[in-house]
Amino acid sequence: MERDIEQLNSALNSIKTLRSNVRQVFESVSNGLRADHGEEGKENKFIIELQDLLTTVNNNLRDVESAVSNLTPPPGAFSLGNTTYLGQETTQERQALYGQLVNSYKWTDKIREYSALAGNILATNSFNKTYKTFSTTKRRKTQTSNHNVSPEVIENLITSIDRLFPDVTITASRPFLPNPVIQACLGRVLKAIIAFKGLMIEWVVVKALSESNDLWSESRYKVFRKVTENCHAAMCHFHSPMMPELAVRSFMHWFHSYNTLFSAPCKRCGNHLLGNLPPTWRDLRTLEPYHEECK
């Protein structure tokens, strides 16, 4: 395989050299007699120069024929079935379809070849050792699911969050026993209706203070719809089944940064409004405000 590639490169280089020298022949013929040929015998000098160029081209042509003869011929014609009739189209646009199909089939063959090689490499990596390690370890006591916890645990979590942020007013209800739905009012800026499933946040919707507390209807204001979308992203970012209480506190700490929704300028552009909207995104680490276009 490697030898075939070297021979193909040699043939291509020979063709490249031939094309370059043929171009020099045509340039010499088009320029005709030049000043550097002198005044005496300039016709003979031009003919001798042209003969030398043609001799070089003849030698290059022999090199091309020799390099092509060393190439391995393909096993057979590359057939695409009835698509070969596309090459007989009279319109210029349809004539190019056959070449594109050939390239796509070649690309697919390469993908299949590389996939087979990757499969063989992955097959050599045995996972038996890891499997045995986990299978021989002592089984631990099954932990209680984060979705199935006592109401007291959830109540303690909500109380700790309420104490952590004095400027956030939290009221809880339990329409879906035992899972609570809390309403977190962030000063006079906005409110969030947060539905829990055990110790994990399942849904968040952000609205204006004057809007309803319906969990399933979105706000009629675009700014709060944008904040709701960002809350969903943050909810997935802070999700941690192994440490659910820390995940909830981290989310609430990030949500608390929206107390400056209408007062803090964008950290990147320095403007308060962009597209008639304030910075509706808060960085997940630094909590700095950004516009949707600036984050």
Automatic annotation (TrEMBL):
UniProt keyword terms in alphabetical order: Nucleus, Transcription, Transcription regulation
Gene Ontology CC: one annotated term: mediator complex
Source organism of this protein record: Zophobas morio
GO molecular function: transcription coactivator activity
Subcellular location: Nucleus
Any one of the GO BP annotations: regulation of transcription by RNA polymerase II
Pfam assignment, any one: Med27
PANTHER family found in the cross-reference section: 34 KDA TRANSCRIPTIONAL CO-ACTIVATOR-RELATED, MEDIATOR OF RNA POLYMERASE II TRANSCRIPTION SUBUNIT 27
InterPro entries linked to this entry: Mediator_Med27
Protein name (record): Mediator of RNA polymerase II transcription subunit 27
Predominant localisation class: nucleus
Domain of life: Eukaryota
Family label: Belongs to the Mediator complex subunit 27 family.
